[in-house]
Amino acid sequence: MTRPEEYGEVVPLRRGATGPAEPDGLREKRNSADFTESNDEPDEVVDAELVTTPVDPEPTRPTVADRVAFEARYRPVLPAAVADRETRIAAERWFAARMLHAAAFHGVRLPWYVAQAVGFIPGGAARVLRGLAGWAVDAEAVQLRRSALHVDDAATWQKLERDRADRVRPRRVLLALGTLAAVAGAAALRFAPPWASWAVVAALLVGLAYLGRPRTRPWIGRAVDIPEAPKLTSETVTRALGALGIAELRKAAEKETGIEFPAPICRDGAGWRATVTLPYGVTAADVIERRDRLASGLRRPLGAVWPESAGEDHPGQLVLWVGDVDLAKARQPAWPLARKGEASLFEACPFGCDPRGRAVGVELMYSNLLVGSLPGAGKSMAMRLPLLFAALDPTAELHLAELKGTGDLSPLEPVAHRYVSGIDDDSVEEALDVMRGVYAELGRRAKVISGLPKDLAPENKVTAQLAAKRSLGLHPLVLAIDEAQEIFSHPEFGAEADKLATGLVKRGRALGVIALFSTQRPDAKSLPTGVSANTGTRFCLRVMGQTENDMVLGTSMYKNGYRATMFSRRDLGVGWLVGASDDPQICRTYLVDQVAAERIVARARAAREEAGTLAGHAVGEAPDRAPAVDLLDDTRVVFATAERLWNADTVAGLAQLRPDVYAGWTVEMFAAAMRQRYGIESRQTWIDGRNRQGIQLAQLHAVLENRDAVPALGAPSGDTDRS
Question: Domain 348-619 adopts which CATH fold?
């Protein structure tokens, strides 16, 4: 074997350090064919030091600056049931209701309780006499003395007899004195007031009845049966997580390492709360999408298991809340304003309860609301709540459009300033007319606010003080479009509705205009991006896919673990609420049926009549009518002497002719209107050497000649009345 000394100096190689360069001769020899390693002769070991460089930082004690930068999380001094006003009130109401029920339950059965107690008195008296007699004769030591006789232990027996005599003698004296005292007390009662005599007798009888009660069964019935829910423990949670089919969770559950509980498992409302740190690489979203398996592992109903992401530190933190009962079966409290009270849109609207039973409110002023779900999941009910709240505010003006045609918003018609209900094109066009009117109101309000002194509007937005000044006309204005997909996806009116809704959502919040939209088809066509991206408050009930989920809740919400796909058909009115608080939360809306809604609206109408704010559709007023226009006649005016025109030029001419009517029209809207209303199809039209979509004058003349066969039509977009 070739020795290393022949080729130069041996250089010790240290990991993480750069040594001297390799000599050229050694590099050439190593690359040559003569430099080979032999397996027959072992290599010579060169003595060298191997040094490793640590990559982990040295442990240091945190400085004051470190502690300030990473502030500790302080647990609340008072529990939520005491510190939170709404939670405290809910607990007090629950306790009062339970006590009232118990009082009524036992009050009805009081005669039976008294009859039983009377029957227990003889047994109690017998028990007292037996006890006193046995005590006086030292009956408890009889068996011990008999045992000494049976074994012929005379010494022990004599000792026991002496002890008995020592005990019995003072007991008999005490018994005699007690008897004399009882007789004296009974004699003294003859001279006591009647109430005192009856009180002593009653106490004596109650005591005897208590002593004579049966020991094997309760003689007073239980007013409330409380089902015992299984206690949540770290063992059950770990076992359930290990059964989800996730490899890392299964390994962690088997080794009992990797699944940590940074806080104790504790009671939280009507259930148990556990905060879990998942193993490396497992996110809360992985667990949430397997909610059904998690419920199976916990042996609890699906509606009682609610995993949520708690990614304040990292996505691997999970908050698991397990209720005592299924949320669908849990009793839902009544809407706080169902029977009495007025509302103010500058305050939070009672919207529902979270799984823990805590009240959830929604701020409507300076925000907008978007509700989306599959049909039949509770979307219209969710829309009804904020509208009823707005109706109870006498200053609010309601503009409502229900495009399903079933009258879901009909209870609110008696207080609505504008009201539309239907599924035909005329109803959709009238809803667009409502939107145009509200959009025009934005401009007026902006001018009013900009002209106010800075001390009245320091933030250039509507406040409660400004809204109260009716002369300014800055009262809250609520626009609600139920089944909004019908107008946004309409081939003729959809583009303009998109433009108007986006403007209302973006500009309305500071001007006292609140927009509410609901849809059962949350996709890009039925829900404009400008609306979904700028709405401050979103409520998503049950949907089927990630796209629909994120269209309502916001981009990446599905990825972050907030998934409305987790809800089942039984979870009516249950959804993810985003924007009402710092973190998304699961909310079950209050249930207000049609009959209850009509009673609430009757109260709201009476309050508006008293305040003098009832107007518009509610009192039979028709909206202002715009001058009647005809698209066909206007198009003929634009053509003038031209034989053919491109649609783009026609739309530009219409906008110049009537800017208040056609300013928002597009080429697609014009083509759709001509096709649907008059049967005029746009064609490839050759003008000046270029070919584009257009129509010819001959097509217009053909329709004009049969004018009587075409129904009279109002303005395609404007303030034409359709009531």
Answer: Rossmann fold (3.40.50)
